[in-house]
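Example record used in the benchmark description.
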Amino acid sequence: DDETIAKAHKEYEHFTNDERLRDLYESRLKWKLDYNTEIEIARQEGREEGREKGREEGREEEKQYVLIRLLSRKFGLLDNEEKLIKSIHDHEKLDRAIESIIFTASKEKILALLK
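Model output (structure tokens):
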């Protein structure tokens, strides 16, 4: 109805002409935009951290797989030995064990590198 529209228009004019109210509104709007920007940045950082963690876990699993496969072919591998390898998350230990397969005559020496 026309009366409601006129009243709303009058309130709008009052609001836009009141510098203090306008400053409050603009401050609130700025805070909201800043807050939303911070949230989006945090989400992006979280996604990137998740991707990096996934890539790291993939590299780790690949090294575990290679070590299990090489040891199985060269020496044979028991279930508990395979579980030991899968429990290792240290890339350097896994790398040393993989590299030592060529020159080591026993799987026990290689597995000892993982401990």
